[in-house]
UniProtKB/TrEMBL annotation:
Source organism phylogeny: Bacteria, Bacillati, Bacillota, Clostridia, Lachnospirales
NCBIfam families: DAP-DH (TIGR01921)
Description of how the protein assembles with itself and partners: Homodimer.
Residue stretches making up the Meso-diaminopimelate D-dehydrogenase C-terminal domain: 122-277
Protein's name according to its UniProt entry: Meso-diaminopimelate D-dehydrogenase
Keyword Cell cycle in record: no
């Protein structure tokens, strides 16, 4: 029997889950839930109902895994503990510093209800976390490096949009080539924040705004820009829409570690992602994790988990026999 999937929240990730479920031979999309008026949403799959979140409790015996597609800033901290009381859930919560707190809240709900909740799945946290853990376990004497980009940072773009005089903005995070090469060549460099990434901003100004003042405010913004070399370009609204509406992203995780009697051998593990669509890749991970969540629940597990707790074979729709024959 197919794993029955629900989508809660229909933004970029919601649309991506819908596409990824279509590619999964062992899954079917049962319903999409939204906080907005359901009749205002047009989804891509014919025959799948769009339902108000207010009626979600009517669906507990019709859905095996609910994929939560709300935002990390304000939606998921409340939605994941709330819906883990009713369903097995998967989310993409990506505020790294708050993962322990989110885990504890979700764990309490899921354990009480006897459900499985897998949090913080996607690429970072998600596939990058797996790459870091595998490589740390294998090379205990070494250094970790994570680089992001080139890609749009939603948080940094929002921060620029909040500046007086700014109409719209996009911010790209870009890894510094020299730093990547130093890591790749086994130099084990100590890198400062400024040496690892640069930030490039494309800004549309309000009529009559002071460009020099906006540029200064961006470049001096603490936490967001002050510790980076930042370039600011002022462009028209049309140019922003035409050239900067893509959702590409990616990055690199490295572990550079030593073995040998005199630590004379250096090993470099590099995991990289080049994503044309950040949400479509993220949701491809969420759907594979939903498959694993169902299997974990079938085995009697409950409570909050992360991608680190999932045996790799549980992510695949292929049998153990097929995996051993073709992918091992
Ligand atoms: P969106 O802003 O597109 O959607 C978030 C929620 O906002 C939706 O669930 C939807 O809820 C609501 N919404 C969407 N569109 C509209 C609209 N037009 N009007 C009103 N409400 C709307 O966010 P994304 O889907 O792009 O991203 C969600 C989260 O995913 C991000 O916050 C990010 O933290 C996380 N993420 C994690 C990654 C990882 O690697 N772990 C990678 C990428 C993203 P509703 O339908 O109920 O209104």
């Amino acid at each position: 029997m197919s794993t029955r999937i629900g989508i809660l929240g229909y933004g970029n990730l919601g649309r991506g889950v819908e596409l990824a479920v279509k590619e999964a031979p062992d899954m079917e999309l049962v319903a999409v839930f939204t906080r907005r008026d359901p009749s205002s949403l047009k989804i891509q799959t014919a025959g799948v109902p769009v339902v108000s979140v207010n009626d979600v409790a009517d669906w507990t015996d019709k859905i095996d895994v609910m994929i939560l597609c709300g935002g990390s800033a304000t939606d998921l901290p409340t939605q994941t503990p709330e819906y883990a009381k009713l369903f097995n859930v998967v989310d993409s919560f990506d505020t790294h510093a708050r993962i322990p707190e989110h885990f504890a809240n979700v764990d309490a709900s899921a354990k009480e209800a006897g459900k499985i909740a897998v949090i913080s799945c996607g690429w970072d946290p998600g596939m990058f976390s797996l790459a870091r853990v595998y490589s740390n376990a294998i090379l205990p004497d070494g250094n970790d490096y994570t680089f992001w980009g080139k890609g749009v940072s939603q948080g940094h773009s929002d921060a620029i949009r909040r500046i007086k005089g700014v109409k719209n903005a996009k911010q790209y995070t870009i890894p510094v080539d020299a730093a990547l090469e130093a890591v790749r060549s086994g130099q084990n460099p100590e890198l400062t924040t400024r040496q690892k990434h640069t930030r490039e901003c494309f800004v549309v100004l309000e009529e009559g705004a002071d460009a020099a003042a906006v540029e200064k405010e961006i470049k001096e913004m603490p936490n967001y820009f002050a510790d980076y070399d930042t370039t600011v370009h002022f462009i028209s609204e049309e140019e922003l829409l035409t050239n900067h509406s893509g959702m590409a992203h990616g990055g690199f995780v490295f572990r550079s570690g030593k073995t040998g009697v005199n630590k004379e051998h250096n090993h470099i593990i590099e995991y990289s992602l080049k994503l044309d669509s950040n949400p479509e890749f993220t949701t491809s991970v969420l759907v594979a994790v939903a498959r694993a969540a169902k299997r974990m629940q079938d085995e009697g597990m409950k409570g909050c988990k992360t991608i680190l707790d999932i045996p790799p074979a549980y992510l695949s729709d292929k049998s153990g026999e097929e995996l051993r024959a073709h992918l091992l």
